[in-house]
Amino acid sequence: MGKAEVLSVKPGPYVKMLVADEFRMEQSGKVLAIGLYSDSVVVLTIPKNAPKPTKETPIGFDGVSLLLTIGGIVGETSVRFGLEGGQAIEHRLNLQSGTSANIIVNIKPFRIASFGVKNVIVELAGSTHKLHFEVRAKYIEAVDDLENYVSIRQDAPVPGTRTVEPSAAKSKPARKRRPKTVPD
């Protein structure tokens, strides 16, 4: 067998992002992902007869949830994050050495004026991190009732004006598990 090589991790602030339909913080501190987009590409099923999204008629869908993992810093700091061109939210952190923090950002409903890359800007400890995910369309046959697939409204805000808010940690209780029984 060959030797494994240990890669050094660059010191300093870091931010990682995962995208899913929903993230939940369990009481144990674990994060539950529902509908994880492992490649950060959200694919929307859109009928062929739906109008193309524009600023005047954005397409809305149930939403998207982002998990921001922040680390590489020690002590009290604040982190600012939001969709590029939109309002940013500030969140205070106090990290111990070797630890990280998870922030869940739910954008529900999520309205888009175009398909393509959506940027999330995170400012942390004097550095700016630009993370991204992509929204694509998968077109299906035309349907009579478009409201069952997409919400098309002229008065809906586009992502540049949508405020995202962090979910409170431990906002949902963990399920109680029954102990496993072993047959005699």
Protein described:
- The chain is mainly β.
- It has a single domain, classed as Immunoglobulin-like (Sandwich), CATH 2.60.40.
- Helices cover 0% and strands 49% of the residues.
- The chain has strands spanning 14-25, 31-37, 41-47, 59-61, 64-71, 75-83, 89-95, 100-107, 110-112, 116-124, 127-140, 151-152, 165-166.
- The strands form three sheets. The chain has a five-stranded antiparallel β-sheet with strand order 2-1-5-8-13, with no helix packed on it. Strands 3-11-10-6-7 form a five-stranded mixed β-sheet, with no helix packed on it. Strands 9-4-12 form a three-stranded antiparallel β-sheet, with no helix packed on it.
- A hairpin with a 2-residue loop joins strand 10 and strand 11.
- The chain is globular, with a radius of gyration of 20 Å.
- 20% of the residues are buried.
